[in-house]
């Protein structure tokens, strides 16, 4: 075979070998990396599953928390609404009366130190609730009278200055029942409406927080369910808190002062169904040890809401409830 042909065959053989080596070199790394890649992908997938599960679990937890909060708020709203309705009465009785003039407190029948403590406490509560206070040297309009013989005191009030304490239009039979009904506390509220003369009789009326309201006929019959508000608004201009001094055993001065503050600064109706409500108003309903040690968040929220809402609106009590819930939740 000529040398040229042998050279050509050798060159071709070397080219074939070179191509085979190159192909083998190319395929070998691929065969080596494939298991590693598969392992990596499997590990990533394994990590992704718990992450997805954690996300689902977190979403479920948040949903459960939202449902729980909503249920708790609905339960609170029901309790607060019952509390407001019990101590303010039904909406067709009119708006909730509040002080329409600066409050000037007089406390009688206690030691001087106790009197000063009560005055200071009532003033603090009034300021925090947005209730105006009269200046020093004012003429009293909120009287706290402590006596071990409250019936004799009330009879003297009725005999000598009935017009000032009970009003000239209070029915004598209802006044007599109020005086003779035993109890640790009696509260009289004198209030009047803001109607123009001749529109609705502006007779001062008296309410008792324990013996039932003393009212004149037609005084509060101004409710119109189709109207946006009441035809008149009622304002307290004088109030008397008469306490039986013989029934104060176990009552602390702080409890006494806070009780006086809430019944003196808001027209509170009698109610014995307040067991579900945390309020100082339960002070004389049973054991004083079972009552709160002082005014509660509910009490403070109630007072503040009464003076922040419109007494001429049919929705006043609803707004009081909403404001109370916002205050309580803080």
Fold and architecture overview:
There is one protein chain. This protein has eight helices and seven strands. Strands 1, 2, 3, 4, 5, 6 and 7 form a seven-stranded mixed β-sheet that branches. The N and C termini lie far apart (108 Å). Strand 2, helix 2 and strand 3 (142-147) form a beta-alpha-beta unit. With 330 residues, it is α/β, with parallel strands linked by helices. It has one domain.
Short key terms for the protein model shown above:
single chain; 330 residues; alpha/beta; 7-stranded mixed β-sheet
Topology:
Elements: H1 3-88, E1 98-99, E2 105-108, H2 112-129, E3 142-147, H3 150-160, H4 162-165, H5 172-180, E4 185-193, E5 205-208, E6 212-214, E7 234-244, H6 253-265, H7 297-306, H8 316-328
Parallel strand pairs: 1-7, 2-3, 3-7
Antiparallel strand pairs: 4-5, 4-7, 5-6
